[in-house]
Hints:
single chain, alpha/beta, Aldehyde Dehydrogenase, Chain A, domain 2, 7-stranded mixed sheet, 6-stranded mixed sheet, 21% strand
Amino acid sequence: MTRGHFLDGDWVPGTGALTVTDPSTGEPAGAVAAGDAAVVDRAVAAARAAFPGWAARPLDTRIALVRAIREGIARERDALARVLTAEMGAPITFARQAQVGVALADLDALIAAAEAGEPETQVSRSRVVAEPAGVVAAITPWNFPLHQIVLKLGAALLAGCTVVLKPSEVAPLNAVALADLLAGAGLPAGVVNVVFGTGPDVGEPLVAHPDVDLVSFTGSRAVGGRIGALAGAAIKRVSLELGGKSAAVMLPDTDLTTAAPQLVGACFANTGQTCAALTRLLVPAGTEDDWLDAVAGALAPWAPADPRLESTLLGPLASHPQRDRVRGHIQAALADGARLVLGGPETPAGLGSGAYLAPTVFTGVDPAMRLFREEVFGPVLAVTAYRTEDEAAALANDSDYGLSGGVWSADPERALAFARRIRTGTVGLNGAGLDVGAPFGGVKQSGVGRECGSHGIAEFQELKTIMGAPALPAR
């Protein structure tokens, strides 16, 4: 059955269909309607009409509705995990614990931030009021689809905005399930609308629509640049969370036995399809063989396998075209002279027609090679040696991107001092992972703006300064 668009509280059939493919088998997993500019117009009109009423609702009411959405996701956790496994290949255990689990944590942190926030503050002689930005276009990716959807929806709804969501056409089925939950939670009609379709047919008309006030996008650098250009022509606010080529820096006193499994998880989880994945490993010169042995040992349980098995750590790529793109990066690394240690471009045996690749490790990767510079978005690790800590910092920063990074050391203060030298939006020390209560985003070509927690809500607000207003009472 082909699911239609979710417009003004109702499911509306489309004129075409987009088939969703299970990447583990190559077989159809479902289908959604294929939208166009006319459907975008209807969705934006519904969001615009719903905006005044939603923005005027007391914050407590908005919090209660977002909490109801969170409870619905928690009830349907297993079902949502199965949908994610079917449409983008996430191993079922990872889908349950991370894909859905992080979405729940997102909403917990956003609700806590909204409850603790101050919508009005006294600044100098004026009152400053945080108001909703208006109608939001939320365009989300296929790699962590539910997490990215609820991160944008939750923050926008708590800020008082209404939303038109365009999920990735590669993995839209979780958005269908979520829209059903929104209706069940009692969300008023028109507050959230979901339009399915491709970037040219739906994404571009949505970004350029004159009644859209703000665009929040997560995805590739190329598409982010296009969205920025379209939004800039209309002087429209954008929040862009784009790609990364993040470095894991192992300082000389790092314990290999502890750090190697942490590094493997940070690189290969979600089959390497994570914007903040640590895909460049920087190690002290002369220790490369030790690190390669440690990484190989830590990768032993990561053989690609059926994502429906509870024991699987590495599933297929999210689509066959994505598998082919990653294979092209591997072949380019070989052509550039990087030394292949594990894996390679071949399809692993015994897995049928799924979009699988083995975890792949290269060493001898230098800054002139494409593998050092280009985001692969797959299960590929590049190892580079450094001679001094100054060189390690220079290598870590030698990137057009600046989304994430990691530093390992036996001395936490030493790790912290080095982290301050890395120009990225986030850095994890000694394996520390995502903190959804703290701001997440990048610098350089990794994007603009921040998501998560109070900073995520602020992305969907405008500040109004009221001069001469009565002073707020002292707290």
